[in-house]
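Long-time lurker, first post.

We've been arguing in lab meeting about whether coenzyme A would sit comfortably in this protein at all. Half the group thinks yes, half thinks no, and nobody has a model to point at. So I'm putting the question to the forum: if I give you the sequence and the SMILES, can you give me back a predicted structure of the complex? Inputs are below. Any interpretation is welcome too.
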Amino acid sequence: MQVVSPVEPDLGDRNRLRVVIRRESIADRDAIRSLTARAFSGLPFSDGTEPLVIDALREANALALSLVAVLREQIAGHIAFSEVGPPAQSGWFALGPVSVEPPLQRRGVGSQLIEAGLDAIREQGAKGCVLVGDHRYYHRFGFVVAPAFAPSQYPPQHFQVVRFGDSFPDAPVAFHPAFSAGAIQPNEPTGFAGGS
Ligand SMILES: CC(C)(COP(=O)(O)OP(=O)(O)OC[C@H]1O[C@@H](n2cnc3c(N)ncnc32)[C@H](O)[C@@H]1OP(=O)(O)O)[C@@H](O)C(=O)NCCC(=O)NCCS
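Top reply:
Settle the argument with this. Predicted structure of the protein with coenzyme A, as tokens:
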């Protein structure tokens, strides 16, 4: 497994790191797995299965978009998007998991990944995006709390939607079954949880 060694910060304005965002390649998979494990390690809302979820989404051909943030040729962050169900609910995507290498957190890398991912799915014709997470973080990307569309097993107060047109989902959405492949317990997040 590739381990991301300490990266010398490439400081931009106001301490924001400038990263290159690109789609994942096959060669990135181990780095994504280990980065995700490190980012979620010890978080109270995580049971450590997030890397398995990404693998299961990929295995099911359900990883609609997988982006990495690269800093000096090392992967500093990752974001996954998957289409939500039921199948009739086409055009809606789930954001998450999203991870930034712990020493590099709060330097704008997560924001750049989220903005680039939302732009990409919008350009692909998405109607919008959903997630389960902390609204204090995700509101800055346009997400609004939308309990009516939350899957039954998730805390509705943390379910959020950003829409690119006028429509909301037709009904409560369902995350891809890969999210339970890792036996994730949808307990109430005390931090940031996106679609996981
Ligand atoms: C959540 C995460 C992806 C955000 O990426 P990031 O690069 O750290 O965040 P950004 O620098 O883009 O955004 C910073 C803002 O996010 C918030 N934030 C990010 N990480 C935070 C943390 N660990 N604790 C508290 N606030 C945090 C802050 O409010 C900050 O706001 P400010 O700019 O007003 O201070 C990253 O912190 C991470 O990997 N966390 C662990 C895994 C996780 O929780 N993933 C989300 C669930 S799928």
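For your lab meeting: Residues 1-9, 183-196 have pLDDT under 50 and may be disordered. The pocket of coenzyme A is lined by residues 39-40, 43, 96-100, 105-111, 133, 137, 191-194, 196 (CB under 6 Å). Whichever side wins, do check it experimentally.
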